[in-house]
């Protein structure tokens, strides 16, 4: 019976009740060691088993084990083993789990850990089709990193499913550091209240303490149940009775550990040796410990003595140490020599488990050892192939530590850095790169180290440093490996074309850009892309576009290019900077779909935040919102919410343009996030510009032209300056800063003279129209001609919002010229577009102008506007394409039951009842 935990038990019970009803949930129980987390979980499971009147719940259990941390997916495999039916999973997920659990190697092709998380979710929700599922994960702070990532992903993605997940973890720092339950509800477990604590003392102590002693024990332990049970056993009868002094006060955990150690030290040497073996072992198997104990000379009597003392429990062929604090106390109290002997004995007992055996051999080794280093390297390769990148980084780094020669250490440190980066640990990856670079004497290895350093800087560091690193590394390796040099030269050139320029330069002849017959399609594409970016930097826009289109055609025709995520991203970035809306949308979308196929979660996150550039320009604002919402949800699911600040910035801009009431709240939250954790890498400046654009747009529609102009002047990135050109022109004109307006229009006119892009020419004509002074002598025909020129160019461009802004300004001009009938056509067209886009401030302005022209603007029936959430829209679009619920679930990383839930909402909102009806609606 648990004392004083009624509220906590009720919350856990409610979680299971909700799961029975198809409302999934997860909860993390955080508390200090000994506070009763495990007891609370045991009580929850016992309560389910003692309630036969309720439908049966399938309970799946696992726990983190400190010494198991280097072994990827160990805890996850224990949890899923009872329900592991890979035949029911989509093939990519089945493959991912098969490789992760070592059931297959799939030809050595690595799996993405993101896919393992998706597969974990699928296994749990498939099992819940038969009966509700409760996942219980104890000691989560000791989970291996791969298991922690997969389980937390599943916990964050659960929706309309009959699944509940409960984790227990220490509240303080400790453990592997892999369990980071951001965005998962938390219940903090404190000590028992004084009344419950005294009751526990009274019922469980062999010799009840006096009232004063009980009060002091309760106060000093803070109501910690384990301390209340263990500390009295170390007190003499006089101390319990209050007639002798109590020992000095210590930190609670230290006191409990000391109590356990005192008990252990009173045991025989064989028992102490057995306990050290059990503390160092992560299998818990009796066979392993019996073999290791026998090899260490531990007699059979030690087992019975340890069990009778309550220090070990042996059930179902498994050995359990009394408490995690016993394990840590025993291990930390042993000398380094004793620990090495224990690990050596365990290594000899693990012939059938090479990974565990190798880690024990490493723990038993001091200094370089070629055999151990090679074995650790093999462990790292196996972990890497299973997608367990953090475990692989650990193995490669430990292998480097046991490698004697500097070149070998450098290569293994770089392997560790690569895997640390793949796991999302940029700080560790950077430190490992620095260590590897200090030892590397091979030009190719040094170039690869620099390329990874540059990639780290691009994403989470300084984009300027990335440009410098790429440029210098390309120059150093050009003579030895031209293709490596070409790849880094392209990365540097694309960065520079976006205004990221460190000042570093390649020698003019360092990179050969002439296409030769022996070049692969990928190499041809890279050369064409480098030519394009160089022409762009030189200001030759038309020639740069031509070269870019050659590169795009090459990429689309070559399978090796279509699967290269870095190349697709650079092609999209180049198209973005050159203003080719169709190309950037196409290549960012191809990058996204390829990343989805590969299960590359971080690239999916990146691509989702690049798509909005083209979606904004193309008037696909609903799709823009969906991309950003998906990015934010994915970032939350994979524990990378800080990397979604660009998506939040786009949503803030959209809120300003739509005049949404949540604009102010969004802006404040975004600015606070930027202040507390500034965006870094390639997204840093775009996020700052998007914030300025949002503030400028809000000021402009609010009548503060000067405030808007102040924001627009601070925008830095050329691509965003061009996208915001319409707003910038109008702000300058309305603020009567004609010099600034003329300068901005002049810049766009210069670009228009050297491009074939219709939207650029339309923007330049619009800018001239806004800044022109009507001539009374010609009745405004010259200005009218400029507006018409802009609209003609917009006829060949796919920028409906910019076109509507031209139509609005033209309609306003015509009305001022007393040409009211002509004005109405432009204003009606503008109003239709603004309403389609939900751009309410400009829709209101267009409607007001229509009324001033003598026409009453009709109110559009809001029932014709689709009010779907981003997830509902995504589900609807996929179902409309003919996909089954199971296929939709695989693409959305949710369960088929959740898909059905969203689909029911879609049918209700749209007033339809079948998938065939859905397929006929214009959802796009």
Walkthrough of the structure:
This protein is mostly helical and 924 residues long. It is 64% helix and 4% strand. α11 crosses α15. The protein is globular and about 110 Å long.
SSE blueprint:
Elements lengths: L5 H15 L4 E7 L5 H13 L8 E6 L10 H7 L10 H10 L12 H15 L5 E6 L6 H13 L5 E8 L15 E4 L4 H11 L6 H11 L3 H6 L6 H5 L10 H14 L3 H12 L5 H10 L5 H8 L3 E4 L2 E4 L2 H10 L2 H13 L5 H10 L6 H16 L3 H13 L4 H17 L3 H14 L3 H18 L2 H15 L4 H16 L23 H17 L3 H17 L1 H4 L2 H14 L2 H18 L2 H8 L2 H7 L3 H17 L7 H14 L4 H14 L7 H18 L3 H9 L4 H6 L1 H10 L3 H15 L5 H14 L9 H14 L5 H17 L3 H18 L2 H13 L17 H11 L4 H8 L3 H15 L4 H5 L5
Parallel strand pairs: 1-4, 1-5, 2-3, 3-4
Antiparallel strand pairs: 6-7
Helix pairs in contact: 3-6, 4-5, 5-6, 7-8, 11-15, 12-14, 12-15, 12-16, 13-16, 16-17, 17-18, 18-19, 19-20, 20-21, 20-22, 21-22, 22-23, 23-24, 24-25, 24-28, 25-26, 25-28, 26-28, 28-29, 29-30, 29-31, 30-32, 31-32, 32-33, 32-45, 33-34, 33-35, 35-36, 36-38, 38-39, 38-40, 39-40, 40-41, 41-42, 42-43, ...
What best-fitting shape do the alpha-carbon axes yield? globular
Radius of gyration equals 33 Å
Report the strand count: 7
pLDDT averaged over residues = 90
The largest β sheet comes out as: 5 strands, parallel
- Secondary-structure-based class equals mainly alpha
List keywords for this structure.
single chain, 924 residues, mainly alpha, Rossmann fold, 5-stranded parallel sheet, 7 strands, 64% helix, 4% strand
């Amino acid at each position: 019976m648990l004392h004083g935990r009624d509220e906590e038990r009720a919350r856990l019970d409610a979680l299971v009740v909700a799961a029975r009803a198809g409302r999934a949930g997860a909860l993390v129980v955080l508390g200090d060691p000994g506070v009763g987390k495990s007891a609370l979980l045991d009580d929850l499971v016992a309560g389910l088993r003692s309630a036969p009147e309720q439908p049966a719940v399938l309970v799946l259990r696992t726990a983190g084990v400190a010494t198991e941390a280097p072994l990827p997916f160990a805890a996850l495999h224990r949890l899923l083993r009872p329900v592991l039916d890979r035949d029911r999973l989509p093939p990519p997920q089945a493959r991912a789990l098969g490789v992760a659990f070592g059931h297959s190697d799939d030809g050595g092709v690595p799996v993405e850990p993101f896919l393992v998380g998706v597969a974990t979710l699928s296994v749990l929700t498939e099992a819940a089709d038969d009966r509700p599922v409760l996942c219980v994960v104890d000691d989560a702070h000791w989970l291996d990193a791969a298991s922690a990532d997969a389980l937390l992903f599943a916990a964050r993605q659960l929706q309309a499913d009959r699944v509940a997940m409960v984790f227990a973890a220490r509240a303080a720092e400790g453990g592997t550091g892999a369990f980071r339950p951001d965005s998962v509800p938390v219940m903090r477990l404190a000590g028992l209240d004084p009344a419950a604590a005294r009751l526990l003392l009274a019922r469980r102590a062999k010799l009840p303490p006096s009232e004063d002693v009980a009060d002091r024990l309760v106060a000093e332990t803070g109501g910690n149940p384990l301390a209340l049970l263990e500390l009295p056993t170390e007190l003499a009868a006089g101390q319990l009775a209050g007639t002798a002094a109590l020992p000095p006060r210590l930190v609670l955990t230290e006191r409990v550990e000391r109590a356990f150690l005192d008990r252990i030290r009173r045991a025989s040497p064989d028992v102490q040796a057995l306990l050290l073996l059990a503390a160092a072992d992560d299998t818990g198997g009796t066979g392993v410990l019996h073999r290791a104990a026998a090899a260490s000379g531990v007699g059979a009597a030690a087992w019975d003595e340890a069990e009778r003392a309550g220090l070990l429990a042996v059930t179902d062929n498994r050995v359990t140490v009394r408490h995690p604090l016993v394990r840590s106390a025993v291990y930390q109290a042993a000398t380094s020599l004793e620990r090495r002997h224990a690990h050596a004995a365990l290594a000899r007992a693990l012939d059938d488990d090479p990974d565990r055996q190798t880690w024990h051999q490493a723990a038993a080794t001091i200094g370089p050892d070629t055999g151990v280093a090679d074995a650790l390297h093999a462990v790292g390769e196996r972990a890497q192939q299973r997608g367990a990148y953090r475990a692989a980084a650990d193995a490669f780094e430990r292998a480097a530590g046991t490698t004697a020669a500097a070149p070998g250490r450098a290569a293994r440190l770089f392997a560790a850095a690569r895997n640390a980066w793949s796991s999302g640990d940029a700080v560790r990856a950077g430190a490992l790169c620095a260590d590897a670079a200090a030892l590397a004497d091979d030009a190719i290895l040094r170039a690869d180290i620099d390329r990874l350093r540059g990639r780290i800087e691009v994403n989470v560091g300084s984009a300027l440093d990335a440009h410098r690193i790429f440029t210098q590394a390309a120059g150093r390796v050009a003579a030895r490996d031209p293709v490596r040099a070409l790849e880094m030269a392209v990365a540097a050139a694309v960065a520079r074309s976006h205004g990221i320029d460190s000042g570093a330069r390649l020698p003019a002849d360092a990179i050969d850009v002439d296409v030769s017959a022996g070049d692969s399609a990928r190499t041809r594409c890279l050369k064409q892309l480098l030519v394009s970016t160089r022409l762009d930097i030189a200001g030759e826009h038309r020639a740069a576009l031509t070269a870019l289109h050659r590169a795009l055609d090459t990429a689309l025709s070559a399978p090796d290019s279509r699967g290269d995520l870095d190349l697709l991203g650079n092609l999209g970035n180049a198209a973005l900077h050159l203003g080719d809306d169709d190309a950037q949308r196409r290549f960012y979308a191809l990058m996204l779909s390829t990343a989805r196929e590969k299960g590359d979660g971080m690239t999916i996150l990146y691509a989702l935040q690049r798509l909005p550039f083209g979606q904004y320009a193309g008037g696909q604002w609903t799709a823009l919102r969906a991309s950003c919402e998906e990015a934010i949800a994915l970032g939350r699911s994979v524990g990378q919410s800080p990397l979604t600040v660009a998506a939040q910035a786009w949503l803030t801009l959209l809120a300003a343009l739509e005049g949404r009431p949540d604009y102010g709240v969004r802006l404040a939250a975004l600015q606070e996030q930027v202040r507390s954790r500034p965006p870094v890498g390639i997204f840093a400046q775009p996020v700052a510009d998007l914030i300025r654009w949002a503030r400028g747009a809000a000021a402009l529609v609010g009548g503060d032209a000067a405030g808007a102009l102040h924001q627009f002047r601070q925008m830095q990135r050329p691509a965003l300056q061009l996208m915001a050109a319409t707003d910038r022109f109008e702000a300058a004109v309305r603020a009567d800063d004609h010099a600034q307006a003329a300068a901005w229009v002049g810049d766009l006119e210069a670009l228009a003279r050297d491009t074939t892009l219709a939207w650029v020419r339309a923007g330049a004509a619009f800018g001239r129209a806004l800044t022109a002074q009507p001539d009374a002598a010609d009745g405004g025909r010259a200005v009218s001609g400029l507006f018409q020129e802009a609209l003609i160019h917009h006829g060949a461009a796919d920028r409906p919002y910019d076109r509507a802004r031209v139509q609005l300004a033209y309609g306003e001009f015509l009305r001022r010229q007393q040409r009211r009938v002509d004005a109405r056509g432009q204003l009606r067209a503008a109003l239709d577009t603004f309403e389609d886009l939900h751009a309410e401030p400009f829709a209101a302005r267009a409607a007001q102008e229509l009324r001033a022209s003598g026409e009453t603007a009709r109110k559009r029936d809001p029932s014709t506007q689709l009010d779907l959430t981003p997830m509902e829209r995504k589900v609807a679009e996929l179902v409309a394409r003919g996909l089954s619920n199971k296929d939709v679930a695989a693409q959305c990383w949710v369960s088929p039951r959740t898909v059905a839930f969203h689909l029911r909402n879609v049918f209700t909102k749209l007033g339809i009842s079948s998938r065939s009806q859905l397929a006929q609606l214009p959802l796009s």
